[in-house]
Amino acid sequence: MVADSLLITNVHLAYSDRTLEDKLWSVECHEGKVTNVFPYGERGRSSPKNELDARGGFLLPSLCHSHIHLDKCFILDRCNLIAGDFREAMNVTAVAKAGFSLDKEDLLRRGRKLVRESVDCGVTSMRAHVEVDIQAGFSALDVALHLKEEAQLACFLQIAVFAQEPLFSSAEDTEPGPNLQLLAAAAQRDGVEAIGSAPYVEPTIEQAIKNIALIFELASHNSITLIDFHLDYNLDPNSEPLIYEVIKQARLVCPSWKSEDSGLFGRRITIGHATRLQLFKPQEWQHLCDAIGDLPITFVGLPNSDMYMQGRAQANEPLGAPRSTLRVPYLADRYGLHVAMSVNNVENAFTPQGSVDPLALCTFGAAVFQAATKADTEILTKSVTLVSKIAMGQTNVPLHLSPQPGDTADFVILHGIHTLRQAVLNPSYDRTTIRNGIVVACRRTRRWTVIKEFPLPQTSVTPISWWWYMLFPIYWPACLINWFVGPHRRQLTREGVMIS
Ligand SMILES: [Zn+2]
């Protein structure tokens, strides 16, 4: 469904030019596309049916979860964390997963909460990973397909069937086990658009390499052009970076992937986590960029999970665990490598902390990456909007954060702020979400406080300009009193003592 027309007025836009960012604008949308952007107060070309007064708020492209788990969100209450490490997270989540097929209503309730809260934040598209294996069966997939239908007006759910568990049952196996058969059956279901796995869970490195090849084969066999690996999720300098195996398979299996598809979704290989690459020296990064060349490969950093889970072996080092998530602004600046950021998990053993809000990752990123310049805030914002949409395989992604005629009218308006810097460093809670030119969600704060406002107390000696004393010497005594008393009073005030 696409709205006839919408006029968004009285809004700040994310222009790089400060003068343009300071101005107020109107954005005209017809049939889901931006048709005109003009200064607020001027007349547009037409009279749209619907009008939205943003009251000086700030408009961004809508937010995107390029990597989120729909099935294992909000299960922290049933995971007893003791060590808090990855092995424990796998084990307690496996126990929780055993209940998925027994209680689909629970899956639906939690998945629905994730989708609704995401749309409230300004998310209009997401790649939803759903696990398919002998524990979960198809229960998570069934629920995800239901939610895809349910949410279609507000948010596009791209379903990625995902093997979180090993495809090989034991280290001795040379052939994959039943998890692969289930994944193959899931890949054939209508509504499934992407396929993925976590090769690092395989018992051996040889099996991890075979896992990558098997996923490419499955994708190719089912004409799936969107592949997603949870990859190189470690900080071990002695481990082999498997990204090169992905590149090798991409060139072997899909030589035509170099070219972009003209459809809504093209061909894309998405790499989540990749924390191992944080150990790369400059020449290793350059080598990787050269190896990728024109292949459509996009990285997705998952800072909430990466920072929580990685680097635990260094807990007793002087500075503790290192920064273990892909440095988004640094990689863009040094290597022109555009990395998306995504939430990954909400309230589970892999990521117990954080909300569904992608903009919260930008705020976190400003500290983790020490990045708060204007250029940094642009890169961080793109990583949870435009670059995340590219990572999902979308092909109609705008180039700029400010809307241009022809762009899809998918926006989030942040109320109560008016600059990109505020959107990144201290984003507002109050938001309006627009998809295809339709307002699909609205989130507002209700406030009440006991604090009452009252005027500052008057000073006993009115500060007077120096030239006034020169003109009227009668005020010299007052000047002297002001000279001695003023600094003393200011000091008291700084210390929080109120003087009447
Ligand atoms: Zn994940």
Characterization of the model:
With 500 residues, this protein is an alpha/beta fold. The protein folds into two domains: 63-398, Alpha-Beta Barrel (TIM Barrel); 454-500, no CATH class. Helix content is 34%, strand content 20%. The strands form two sheets. An eight-stranded parallel β-sheet has the order 5-6-7-8-9-10-11-12. The chain has a seven-stranded mixed β-sheet with strand order 3-2-1-4-13-14-15. Strand 6, helix 4 and strand 7 (156-163) form a beta-alpha-beta unit. Helix 3 crosses helix 4 (139-150). It is globular, with a radius of gyration of 27 Å. The structure holds zinc ion. The chain crosses the membrane at residues 466-485. This is Metallo-dependent hydrolase.
Main attributes?
single chain, 500 residues, globular, TIM Barrel, binds zinc ion, alpha/beta, eight-stranded parallel sheet, 16 helices, disordered C terminus, seven-stranded mixed sheet
Structural category is: alpha/beta
The CATH architecture of the largest domain: Alpha-Beta Barrel
- In round numbers, the mean pLDDT is 91
Helix content: 25-40%
Tally the structural domains. Answer: 2
Main-sheet strand order equals: 5-6-7-8-9-10-11-12
Low-confidence stretches: 491-500
Principal-axis shape = globular
Main sheet: strands, sense, barrel: 8 strands, parallel
Beta fraction of the residues? 15-25%
- What is the C-level CATH assignment of the largest domain? Alpha Beta
Report the span from N to C terminus. Answer: 63 Å
- E-strand count: 15
* CATH T-level fold name of the largest domain: TIM Barrel
Number of helices: 16
CATH superfamily of the largest domain: Metal-dependent hydrolases
Bound heterogens, unique: zinc ion
